[in-house]
């Protein structure tokens, strides 16, 4: 059985993983959702100084504090950035990295590099106008993809909006620095949802590596928040990834 550390994407906390974590525990795994600084119950610890390094340290400290071994580190969306950084620091504690609708970052890369210039400028304007210069709203994140909410009915989408927390914008603007690659023996897994599956199947050269060894790819036909829209199905794929 595996030790899962589940890291949520932008504006989310450990709560987003509740149903998937329960399904993983029913399979016999250990499932440990993590809330990053500045989000959900950790919102009071956030501030203008909260950046990508803060979240990398959150993940690393979480694993080391509990002396976790044979860890399967799961990143949803934005969490690909801090998980990539943490994976380079965890050494032999790490057995596997799983990217859920996201992909590993390279040294010098930030979240803003993935966003088209006009959309990135709108994010900056929102943060400046209504985010006290450092808070990125969930509505702004939600607006980045027109089909992200596939699989979410009105009640689930309302619940997602109600529980989401503004994202410290420094986590989007700070580039990844330092070790960005886990050891060669660390298993690498991708779970792609609708939009990402289409990008991969389009044969984009920059993403081609994700569909070949050592990567193992699983497709999940739902929107960008599978832990909310398809939590049991996501747990099933995570279970397959470690079996």
From TrEMBL:
Keyword Hydrolase part of the UniProt annotation = yes
Listed A to Z, the keywords are: Hydrolase
Cross-referenced Pfam families? Abhydrolase_6
Please name the Gene3D superfamilies in this protein's record: alpha/beta hydrolase
Q: Where is the AB hydrolase-1 domain?
A: 4-236
**Molecular function in Gene Ontology:** hydrolase activity
**Which InterPro entries is this protein grouped with?**
AB_hydrolase_1, AB_hydrolase_fold, Sec-Metab_Biosynth_Hydrolase
Q: What is the name listed in the Swiss-Prot or TrEMBL entry for this protein?
A: Alpha/beta fold hydrolase
The species this protein belongs to is Nonomuraea spiralis
- What lineage is on file? Bacteria, Bacillati, Actinomycetota, Actinomycetes, Streptosporangiales
């Amino acid at each position: 059985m595996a030790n899962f550390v589940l890291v949520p994407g932008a504006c989310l906390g450990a709560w987003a993983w509740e149903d998937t974590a329960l399904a993983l525990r029913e399979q016999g795994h250990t499932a440990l959702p993590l809330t990053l600084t500045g989000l959900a119950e950790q919102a009071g610890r956030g501030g203008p100084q909260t950046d990508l390094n803060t979240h990398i340290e959150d993940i690393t400290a979480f694993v080391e504090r509990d002396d976790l071994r044979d860890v399967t580190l799961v990143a949803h969306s934005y969490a690909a950035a801090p998980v990539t950084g943490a994976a380079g620091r965890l050494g032999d504690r790490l057995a596997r990295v799983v990217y859920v609708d996201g992909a590993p970052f390279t040294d010098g890369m930030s979240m803003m590099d993935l966003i088209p210039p006009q959309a990135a400028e709108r994010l900056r304007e929102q943060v400046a106008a209504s985010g006290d210069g450092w808070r990125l709203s969930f509505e702004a994140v939600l607006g980045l993809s027109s089909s992200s909410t596939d699989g979410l009915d009105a009640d689930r989408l309302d619940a997602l909006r109600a529980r989401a927390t503004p994202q410290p914008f420094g986590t989007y603007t700070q580039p990844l620095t330092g070790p960005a690659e886990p050891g060669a023996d660390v298993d690498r897994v991708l779970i792609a949802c609708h939009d990402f599956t289409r990008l991969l199947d389009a044969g984009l050269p920059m993403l081609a590596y994700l569909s070949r060894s050592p990567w193992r790819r699983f497709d999940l036909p739902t929107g960008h928040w599978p832990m909310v829209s398809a939590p049991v199905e996501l747990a099933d794929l995570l279970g397959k990834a470690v079996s």
